[in-house]
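Sequence in, structure out.
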Amino acid sequence: MSNGEGDKEMEMCSVIVEKVRGRSSVINCLSRYPLKFIIPKKVYKSVGSKCSNQILEARVGSDALLAIIPDPVTCFSTARYYQKQVFSVSLDSNLVIVDWITSGRHESGEKWEFDLYRSTNNIFLEDGQPLFLDTMLLEKGKIGCIQESMHNYQVIAMIVILGPKMQYIQNLVQDHVKEVMSERLQHPSGALSHQRDKADHFISKPSFMASCSAFGPKRIGCLVRVAAETTESVYNFLRHQLAPLEPMIGVPPYR
């Protein structure tokens, strides 16, 4: 390969790893369409009480956009996983976070059989003032059987959309969530799943649920929560809701 070809390839993709606090850390990760880094999100069985950890700290500059739109985390049976994401933003920063988890390898019979899943997302303004603080904790034994608590839901997702450039997307998402849930509740025949409870009573629940709420000064942020019975339904939801990001990030999300 010639130097010219090598230089061109380096412009398309780059991963820089350095030693930080005694550990190998990715300090720069860049890929340009049509190339895409495939980052595995599987968490394997834990060794004893050891826990897999992922920590992300980022500062989003004025008028900048950071989009964290990964595939879902999938925890294997007995896995223990903790992730923490901390973001520093200004009032005109733009941020999109998708944080979601599946029940596990349900095609192999594993449904919510991991031991621990904890995900924390904190957003602070530049002066250190908290803007958004959220933690989801699923721990075997703390809430009884995780699978029973989740009923038939196989996917849990949280989406944060923040910033002035995201206002158009926020409005679209809020309107779409209201429309979808209104339709499912008014015409539930094809959108409900049925499950027996411990008393042998049938419980009917929507196969897809979503809620949307605003947060922050002047409602600069939008929080969406989703629970669904299939991963594909959440992929479709994200693909549709985040489609307006394509001109900003150069590629359609989740395609």
